[in-house]
Amino acid sequence: MKNKSIYIAILNQGNIRPEMADLMSGLSRQRKYEILINYPCAKPITNNRNQIVKRFLETEMDYLLMLDNDCVANGKLLELADYDKDIIGGVSFGYLKQMLVPFVMKKKLTGKYDVIDINKNSGVIECDAIGSGNMMIARRVLEELPFPFRNEYDPEGIKTRGLDFNFCRRAKKLGYRVWVDTDMLVSHWTTVDLKTMWETFNSIKDRALEVVEAEIEKGLAYKNNISGWMIVEQLDWLFEVSKVMKSIVEVGSYKGRSTHALLSGCKGTVSAVDPFTDYGKKGSYYKDFMDNVGEFKNLKPFKMTSEEASKKFKDKSVDMVFIDGGHSYKDVKKDIELWLPKAKKLICGHDYQGADVRRAVDEKFKRVSNINNIWVHKIYDKDTIQTAKKAHK
User: Fold this and answer.
1) Which of 33, 43, 46, 324 is most buried, judged by most C-beta within 10 A?
2) If you ran DSSP here, which 8-state letter would residue 92 be given?
3) For residue range 161-205, what is the model confidence (pLDDT) as tens digits?
4) Phi and psi dihedrals of 96, rounded to 5?
5) Is residue 155 reached through a cis peptide bond, with omega within 30 degrees of 0 on the bond before it?
6) pTM
7) CATH of domain 232-391
């Protein structure tokens, strides 16, 4: 089978950042993909990008990867080709209305764009526009879209849409789709005023607090005050992902801090597996657990060990498994082996920052996402793969 071929164009102004040079040096030594690296520095930028496209189409290569010299991703950059998307990129950052934001956009009915909250997503997701500083484009798109990069102006000559968003908009009109790998964060090396940075982060913080408080009042955001070791961002992720799950098993519930988040989001059954014994002491924290989450009708507690509980579930019988039991290498490895066959869509777990946890997870899975130190592995069975292929067509 022929290796996928990638034409890499690094747009620059006459010099190359050492970080980019180091990245290209590493990529040039890989053997999985056929690559050709080019360093075009023509001006203006629209001319440079369109000239790059013209030279790319003169080759027979599969993908064009355009990188701005100051936008440096990681060594997995070429793996974007494995998704075989029309347009895909990592998450680039920049300023929008004096706020520092990820350039991952969703188009509103008004035609304007909203920033997608990448912290509430993982892996590859579909969107409406991404920044062109880190963008991989399939050959089929550029063969159908002439002079792809151009700014858009109003009758008075004022720019209304930049070349990257305009390119995505025109490609989508032709039926092509735009994607972003939310796990690939791209460094954007630039010089900024520290006062501007300070004002930016303060405005983001104040606005975020206002939004969260409003969403909590409307029941759209999540919060609880149960004692435990899980941070707010992790609880919020569990709450959001549980909304799309019909059944969940949690291995290790303690007093119910994370269980509460899962129960609040999931409309189906949440099975809480825990012997509820106070480690190293006599007694139980089961009463505390029930006091905190016992009012939920969708709760099903299993007061037993992980191994005992796993025997009560058939294979592929639950959508999601969340592992937060023993944190030794042996315990985590065993829990993954016990519960992976039971999960249909997702298996994940807490404390990925721990050396033993990370070792057990990385040995089992070739690809996991790390979301605020929650490790996440998506399960692709035959039905899921067939559904995804139909959606792509």
Assistant:
1) 324
2) -
3) 788 889 999 999 999 999 999 999 998 887 766 676 676 766 666
4) -140, 115
5) no
6) 0.53
7) 3.40.50.150
